[in-house]
Amino acid sequence: MARKKIALIGGGQIGGVLAQLAALRELGDVVLFDIVEGLPQGKCLDIAEASPIDGFDVELKGTNDYKDIAGADVVIVTAGLPRKPGMSRDDLIEVNSKIIASVGEGIKQYAPNSFVIVISNPLDAMVTLLQRITGFPYNRVIGQAGVLDSARFEAFIAWELGVSVKDVTAMTLGGHGDDMVPLVRYASVKGIPVLELLERKYKDKAKAKEVMEAMVKRTRGAGGEVVALLKTGSAFYSPASAAISMAESILKDQKRVLPTCCFLQGEYGVKGYYVGVPAVLGSNGVENILEFALDAEEQAMMDKSVAAVKSLVDSLK
Ligand code: A3D
């Protein structure tokens, strides 16, 4: 059986980490594309020269030519500008729309059978645009945001409760913006509700609620927290890890349930928009969208987040 092939469009901060992670996990041969000459070639050579140390057997090719992505099974898109301190993700829509339009054409022409995972911001709009340009079926074009937003929420819970991050399950729904919906009621440590554990820790219901609200707020602003510290760009290690877990689930048909920016056709009361929801990712891409009952408060937060996505997407030219 031929090795799988992963094409990475955008060889910047996230693209470089994606290439390294894909190689370390031997997901398949890696092609890293960027418009800057030498950048993807240099990064791939650098990573490949670590292969005898780390012991991975995959090919890494840096390129400025879309032809080289031919035959890719999965394409991960990070082309586009990241935000700087003081900017919102939505401020990137104009400049990144032009970039995504050209990337979409390249993928459509050279990797017409691929599954595409978009990371470029503003995420919900960029994945919508890329699907429109490629015309690929919705199950083959998805966005990464929820895996990362959920991981941030899980990390904050684990740190607060002094338990392993491996034993925390928590999820965010909705758009990848400040209105995202971290689901408090479903957050648990091995099935034990986090709110219950906080109440036991603080022996005070009001304090437990306050601590939970602070974690929700930090989750919503977590991308901005990193931007403010870095000053020159945005998070790149964690978004790469998040997208690789999605690619791996598709390439290995793992059928993992991952919060994914998917095209909704009535689920959660949303029709015709890409929004973050839990999805089963396997060899057919999005194989199922898991729906569950939201209470009135959660539904109201979801509606607000979806409204923000709609107004952004409707502003696409
Ligand atoms: P950066 O390090 O600037 O890399 C972007 C790369 O895109 C650069 O190397 C550019 O040369 C390249 N590029 C520009 N135009 C094109 C083009 N037309 N074709 C191909 N490549 C091009 O940014 P980054 O890697 O830090 O971030 C990439 C994107 O991801 C940004 O839009 C970020 O806002 C976004 N991002 C999303 C998340 C999510 O969780 C959704 C998290 C963090 C960053």
Structural notes for this entry:
The protein is an alpha/beta fold. It is built from eleven helices and 14 strands. A six-stranded parallel beta sheet has the order 3-2-1-4-5-6. It is globular, with a radius of gyration of 19 Å. The protein binds 3-acetylpyridine adenine dinucleotide.
Please describe the structure with a list of short key phrases separated by commas or semicolons.
binds 3-acetylpyridine adenine dinucleotide, 3-stranded antiparallel beta sheet, 317 residues, 44% helix, alpha/beta, 6-stranded parallel beta sheet
**Could you state the order of secondary-structure elements as H and E?**
EHEHHEEHEHEHEEEEEHHHHEEEH
> Percentage of helical residues?
40-55%
Strand order of the biggest β-sheet:
3-2-1-4-5-6
Which blocks of ≥5 consecutive residues have pLDDT under 50? none
| Mean pLDDT across all amino acids | 97
Report how far the terminal alpha carbons are from each other.
Answer: 43 Å
Got a strand count?
Answer: 14
Helix/strand/pairing category: alpha/beta
Give the distinct bound molecules: 3-acetylpyridine adenine dinucleotide
- Give the biggest sheet: 6 strands, parallel
| Tally of helical runs | 11
What does the radius of gyration come to?
Answer: 19 Å
Shape: globular
Please indicate the percent range of residues in DSSP E strands (runs of 2 or more): 15-25%
Keywords: NAD, Oxidoreductase, Tricarboxylic acid cycle
Binding site for substrate: 83, 89, 121, 152
Binding site for NAD(+): 10-15, 34, 96, 119-121
Active site: 176 (proton acceptor)
